[in-house]
Amino acid sequence: MQPRYAELAQQLIDEISTGKLGIGAALPSEIELSVQYGVSRSTVRSALQMVQDLGLISRRKRAGIRIEALKPQRPFEQSISNVEDLVQFAAVTERHIQSIDEIESDDVLSAQLRCDAGHRWLRAAMLRVDPAKPDAPICWTDVYLDHSVASGIRRQLRKSTGLICEAVEEKYGRVVSELQQEIRAVGVPERFAQALGVAADSHALEITRHYLDQNGEVFEVTVSVFPADRFTYALNLKR
Q1: Contact of 222 with 209, CB cutoff 8 Å
Q2: Pairing with 153, which of 42, 92, 124, 238 sits 20 to 30 Å away (CA)?
Q3: E-assigned strands of 20-116?
Q4: Where does the record place the HTH gntR-type domain (predicted)?
Q5: What angle do CA 6, 48, 78 make, to 5 degrees?
Q6: How far apart are alpha carbons 43 and 193 in whole angstroms?
Q7: 129-133, 162-166, 188-192 — which one is most confidently predicted on average?
Q8: Which helix (H) or strand (E) holds 109?
Q9: pLDDT digits (tens, 9 = 90+) for 59-97
Q10: What are phi and psi of 179, to 5 degrees?
Q11: How far is CA 197 from the centre of its chain?
């Protein structure tokens, strides 16, 4: 289940994209949106920040909240500090499943997934797409689900638009308590370069994420490849 602010952000994005309110039109104030949708002002602020990050609105004192564009104008900038940040990414993009199959990991894949060779996984290959730019997918992702959760989730993969780990939580009660990430520069593999619309071996960012449950056990691993011109990864460090 998505956080309420992410749901509200998606509602606002959908309403803006219809074009019923033109560029420059004013949206209701934070207080008015809070009453209209029955949520707290902090929830409204978080939702508006998501929408603003996509270049759809501006927020200024006295001028209020104004529509600046009907479709997202900026490349995705993702700052990851918790699972809710991933939910934000999922809320404003679409998941296009390309294939689903069962595999046993070889030595190379086992090293990346941190498992024994021959471990059984359900692999779902997908494109993550910005609805405003469907011809330029943001990334290709291979999702690996441990065999212990695969059978109960497989049918939901083509239907669900949220995070797969949320479906696992709902079905099996395995909550993501830790998310481990590894980031490296790679060349886009030939097997999905065409689907991304880029040349094979062109510059890209690869992010591998291990999802650990409350018992410290990995039940999902994702490997995402982002072409260099379509994604910015931001990490803020504070003392």
Answers
A1: yes
A2: 92
A3: 26-27, 57-60, 64-67, 76-78, 94-104
A4: 2-70
A5: 65
A6: 39
A7: 188-192
A8: helix 107-113
A9: 988 789 999 998 876 655 555 555 666 655 666 678 899
A10: -125, 115
A11: 20
